[in-house]
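Predict structure. Chain length: 138.
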Amino acid sequence: MTSEHPAVLFVCSKNGGKSQLAAALMRELAGDNVTVYSAGTKPGAALNAQSVESLAELGIDVTGEYPKPVTDEVLDTVDAVIVLGTEAKLDPPTGKRFEIWETDEPSERGIGGMERMRLVRDDIKTRVQTLYSDLATT
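Prediction complete.
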């Protein structure tokens, strides 16, 4: 571990949806016990409005968050890199835990809008809880 607390980076392509969801859910769950970063391989202009709304439904406020690029500085800092979805391409950093989460994609089943976003959020939330349990015991 690079510090007294594990650090994790959540990555997706635009850093507007899934990686922001995962980061917000981890912050909410872990508090100060895990240092959390999120970034995109091709950062978009803004956060996905439905992602923000789905977090607000859980009482999580992400005001002030914005899409950020993946940087070597952050990659060097973290203990784990989690890529959400298959769109973002990132080489596994040497010596770091590296996972690709092929997240639920309800749109493939004809589910859209906020119903889709809640399913994506809940899938990511379950994965974040598992990751946190894992990090807390290492």
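Summary: The chain has four helices and four strands.
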